[in-house]
Design brief:
The chain is an alpha/beta fold and about 240 residues long. About 35% of the residues lie in helices and about 20% in strands. It contains 8 helices and 8 strands, in the order E-E-E-H-E-H-H-E-H-E-H-H-E-H-E-H. It is globular and about 45 Å long.
Length: about 240
């Protein structure tokens, strides 16, 4: 399929690394980071809901084919792409994904342009923990983790890891102690999430807001969309992004 109408294609470059971006809407800024295999129609539909709620949404294109449907082939192609890229961690623990530096730069630029308390950041599945890594930068005031699934939950250590270096985790904890909150969504029996929600609760305490659904679904705001989850995300953005 072609990419949905009304989205303005651009790009963002930081430290020599460039990725395409798609932008739409007005109001406080929200960065929606797609899941594997890329910016699918379901991801674009969710992003449009955020636009309709009164936000400026920017979707970076980190891998995959923009606008393509989720199929076995597109998923396999995206997995091959991320597995050879040095921008992403896949199995290593206690390490922040390198692309977080680029995403923080994107957030800073969006906040500088739009002003307000800060910007929102939402990641899904493979990118679910990226929003937490972006929170290291003070421009990000509304981080949302939808079924965070990296590092891949192979073994108990990886299943519990939150994809942050110890130093970055300390910064996140400090921000939470200062009143920042983090929203997380998952299906309770989703094996891809592992036990990292328990880790986040232990490390962040009441600052980590858990929204959990029964069953073995996975994509909480896209393919296995839950209206209660979408409502929780939009409410969280309203609480943290509007003056």
């Amino acid at each position: 399929m072609t990419f949905p109408d009304g989205w303005t294609r651009g790009s963002h470059t930081h430290d020599g690394v460039s990725h395409a971006t798609y932008r739409k809407g007005s109001g406080p800024g929200v960065i929606v980071i797609h899941e594997i295999p890329g910016i699918t129609p379901e991801v674009a539909t969710f992003a449009q809901e955020v636009v309709d709620a009164g936000y400026t949404v920017v979707m970076p294109s980190l891998f995959g084919t923009d606008g393509a449907d989720m199929t076995a082939l597109s998923t396999a192609n995206a997995l091959r792409q991320v597995c050879v890229s040095r921008e992403f961690t896949k199995l290593r623990t206690g390490e922040t994904t390198p692309v977080a530096v680029w995403l923080r730069s994107l957030a800073r630029d969006l906040h500088a342009e739009l002003g307000g308390p800060g910007v929102g950041a939402l990641g899904m599945c493979f990118t679910g923990g990226f929003a937490l890594a972006m929170m290291v930068d003070e421009s990000v005031t509304a981080p949302v983790l939808c079924q965070p699934s990296t590092p891949f939950a192979v073994g108990s250590k990886r299943a519990a890891d939150v994809n942050l270096s110890p130093g970055d985790l300390d910064i996140v904890k400090g921000r939470c102690q200062g009143g920042q909150q983090v929203l997380g969504l998952r299906y309770r029996k989703d094996p891809a999430v592992g036990t990292r929600f328990d880790t986040l609760t232990r490390e962040l305490g009441d600052a980590f807001i858990r929204v959990e659904f029964e069953g073995k679904g996975h994509s909480t705001v896209t393919a296995h969309r839950q209206q209660a989850g979408v409502d929780a995300v939009l409410g969280f953005f309203a609480d943290h992004l509007r003056t």
